[in-house]
């Protein structure tokens, strides 16, 4: 019983040294989840040690001879590496042996492979990448974050549906608030596509709360924020840059001299608590939505803790019928439209 | 001698109580700048006290009977309020009585009025809004931030030119590095317009350093970052939201109990230094670029210190021939193309 996940153990900046211990640690703390560790047997075996025995039939290694490079063009990875750990992990989902795949490998390749192998759900034109960001209150799901640079209003509507169903599955909020990312400038409230998307969302039966602005992502004004992949990617990367700059400045301020270093020492518990609250590792694990299977992308530079969050998200989405929820919402909408 | 600026003293969330003292304080510390304070004489006079005498002919009040509301539709403000302080300040630039106008009023109205009164420079299709953001190294000018939601590749090229000339004028960097905001996803490097804009910028004679991503804004990888107004506005607002969230979290972490409050007290000098470094007030003053005159928009909620920065930016741009620089670059480019 329980959910089985297929883990691409070779992907990411660090590869198996991080993914294997993270997978084992996750399995130990989540007895209802089983895992198939995908990758080169000769590389994975030594890292497993006697863990396989301890976890019994809940974990097994599935050999895959190739690895997709972090900078490899997606088309090449898809065409030439049919036995890559990434491809095999997704194949296992397709074959029904696993309910979800997790990879820290190259996003473009993972998206291309997932789309090719699993195909999109009925009514979904394009899959989207959905991440979670922290907010003053709770957290916010944002999509698309880079899979689709040119979106129609219909695509944005589909993102709204997929995001809502993800929140329903994972956060158990039955009618999540959906906001449409727009700009606040009085003169020109958004472009034509965004205006049309607003109309579609209003008539969708979703809990649409209208336009939101960039700052609303971090205020928690909506559970799901919908935007095209170009805008979403810029918002995400800009946030990463700002967070990095602020952390650099804070470190520099406390590191200036012996007195400021002492102050840092005194303030350590507070700084730690602050750091925990905004720890991006807790939010690791972007969901590739709209496919006939759950696929989760971990950040390439994820450490063990972060990688475990990505596994958790995948197991959670699969265990809470994410795919069925999206399918059934799409079906009911196409019935209503017919 | 010196630069004369026209200040809309009625605009902004606080109006004259903030703008008038800020203007006087600025004039006292900048003896080469003169100011025309625009607004209702009966409101401004009591705030001036005997400052007019002290500053001699360097400052005068220009009466304007109306005020543009912060939420007033730009078209209405433009059509119906010909004697608004905002309109009159821009009129003074048009008439040559001032070299620059500053307003903390509604952005849409200021853009509409400036465009109508001053017109765009030859070769410039659309004015853009350019702000400065802090970076790990130095700072970064970003445009457009919301004036244009649908941009062609040519518009993005023009933004690159205008931004470069602003940096040349204000920061005295003769060949500023210009980056094109794009997304890093391997599969799909930007949409068609951004790709074309890249080609145009490469052939422009500007110091084009290629694509940059959202995080580069805060890394200082380029002096000028060019994007369409929708993307730029989202990036800016997202940053504001994130900064606000982090500052809330930091305050909450230090405010939890008596011990953490004591830690905050100890760490106060460091926190102050950190706060100063990222103080958004220092970056106040967005430049409306591409017009036949310098117009600077202050944040509506600016306090006196922030409003002074906006005045400084306007005086600086006008004093360093911003308009002439843009005109001459546009002329040389159209000659080269002919």
From TrEMBL, chains A, B:
Keyword set, alphabetical order? Acyltransferase, Cytoplasm, Lipid biosynthesis, Lipid metabolism, Phospholipid biosynthesis, Phospholipid metabolism, Transferase
Question: Which GO biological-process labels does this protein carry?
Answer: fatty acid biosynthetic process; phospholipid biosynthetic process
| Name the UniProt record assigns to this protein | Phosphate acyltransferase
Q: Which domain of life is it from?
A: Bacteria
Q: Name one GO cellular component term.
A: cytoplasm
Q: In which pathway does it act?
A: Lipid metabolism; phospholipid metabolism
| A GO molecular-function annotation | phosphate:acyl-[acyl carrier protein] acyltransferase activity
User: What family does the entry list?
Assistant: Belongs to the PlsX family.
What this chain does, per the entry, is described as: Catalyzes the reversible formation of acyl-phosphate (acyl-PO(4)) from acyl-[acyl-carrier-protein] (acyl-ACP). This enzyme utilizes acyl-ACP as fatty acyl donor, but not acyl-CoA.
